[in-house]
Please model this.
Amino acid sequence: MTDRFQDPRFHPPAGGLVPHMGITLIDEGEGWMEARMEIAQHHLRSGTNALHAASLIALADSVCGFAAGQALPEGAKGYTTIELKSNFVGTANAGVLIGRADAEHLGRTTQVWRSKVHHEDSGRTLALFRCTQMVLY
Model:
């Protein structure tokens, strides 16, 4: 298991969205990755006690993107998201969210990843996410 508090993908020196959102690595392997995010006030919709959709997408897209970066074909220099879709099937206002990314297609020019975000304590699924990454050379 990678030390999630030292992983530069999740904690770059210049900061950024991922550390601001509190997303940290749990574990990773070939074709998959898991990350967590503890729900804080800034993850909720203004004036409500429910998660903002963008908070769920931030977790799902980040875990898929970082997994894609670990699965690049030889000679590739990077990747970029060219499509994403999310279905929101639940919400929460406290606790920890777990996002797991799994590769569905690892091609030379594109990758397709799926992620499921669930609430750690209840086990309830909150979002189903899918994205396509274009491989950059």
